[in-house]
Design goal:
Layout: E1 2-3, E2 12-17, E3 20-25, H1 36-49, E4 58-62, E5 71-73, H2 91-109, E6 115-119, E7 122-124, H3 126-132, E8 136-140, E9 144-146, H4 160-168, H5 170-179, E10 182-184, H6 185-191, E11 196-198, H7 203-215, H8 219-232, H9 237-251, H10 255-265
Parallel strand pairs: 3-4, 4-6, 5-7, 6-8, 7-9, 8-11
Antiparallel strand pairs: 1-2, 2-3, 9-10
């Protein structure tokens, strides 16, 4: 395990394990609640790894060293100070405040390599919205999801109303947000949000295995799969299929494609180098 922290990171920790990196939200006293600066640090950390050939997958999680209860993130930090240059009762200024937060959620979602949300504990409100910006969700059985904002007179405005409905549909998304109930990891697995539901004592090893697999997989192929799904599903089918056509053409020149075919013909496991 190799530390990748620098003095600029205050609310996150970064370590490298093999061919993948782990970004941990490190605010255990606040159940890893998210403020503007935490989102900014996560987005900046991902940007560092975008073209780093030694990092081919990233795990996003809450710190393992919790002081209260385990949490991926219990949501937005409601105690955080607002932006000093924005007026709280000015509509345009508050629109700008939300834009600034959305910008980092968007950058996180657009990270070009596989991004795993490793959820152990609470993933509520803004934390749940952060999960929805990831590609794969691995959750321990003790994890809890939900959008409790309505109970505080607010609503999921960090992309929640838009991203959740694209996963669950209009009626299911409204049910989650209208009533603000908590949902178990098992329920989220049944709804298709959680990709892998894991026993609590097997969670760490399982996350390592899946991240290691992606960290040793053909990075260009994963890049094209992610782009084709994320953007191809936003357009008509015939346009989306064009993403596949061009993606296939681009990927055919990859060294990993040549290695994969050669390994298959030679009846051995391929050794992908992310090229």
């Amino acid at each position: 395990m190799e530390s990748m922290n620098d003095f600029k990171n205050i609310t996150i920790e970064i370590v490298k394990e093999g061919n993948y990196a782990v970004i941990s939200i490190n605010r255990p006293d606040k159940l890893n609640a998210l403020d503007y600066y935490t989102l900014k640090e996560i987005a900046e950390a991902l940007e560092l790894h975008e073209v780093n050939p030694q990092v081919r997958c990233v795990v996003l999680r809450g710190t393992k060293e919790y002081t209260k209860k385990p949490a991926f993130s219990a949501g937005a930090d409601l105690s955080a100070r607002g932006f000093e240059d924005l007026e709280k009762d000015n509509l345009r200024h508050q629109y700008q405040a939300m834009y600034r937060r959305h910008k980092y959620y968007d950058l996180i979602e657009e990270f070009p390599k596989p991004l795993i949300a490793a959820v152990d504990g609470y993933a509520l409100g803004g934390g749940f919205e952060l999960v929805l910006a990831c590609d794969i969700v691995i959750a321990s059985e003790r994890s809890v999801f939900g959008f409790p904002e309505i109970r505080r007179g607010i609503f999921p405005a960090n992309g929640g109303t838009q991203r959740l409905v694209r996963h669950l549909g209009v009626f299911e998304a409204k049910k989650l947000m209208f009533f603000g109930d908590h949902y178990s990891a098992k329920q989220m697995h049944e709804l298709g949000i959680v990709g892998f539901l894991v026993k609590d004592d097997e969670f760490e090893q399982f996350v390592h295995e899946k991240a290691s697999w992606l960290g040793n997989a053909p990075t260009n192929s994963l890049f094209l799969i992610k782009k084709s799904i994320n953007y191809g599903t936003q357009v008509a089918l015939n346009v989306g299929l064009q993403f596949e056509h061009f993606g296939y053409a681009l990927n055919s020149t990859s060294q990993d494609v040549q290695e994969g075919v050669k390994a298959f013909l030679e009846k051995r496991e391929p050794v992908f180098k992310g090229r």
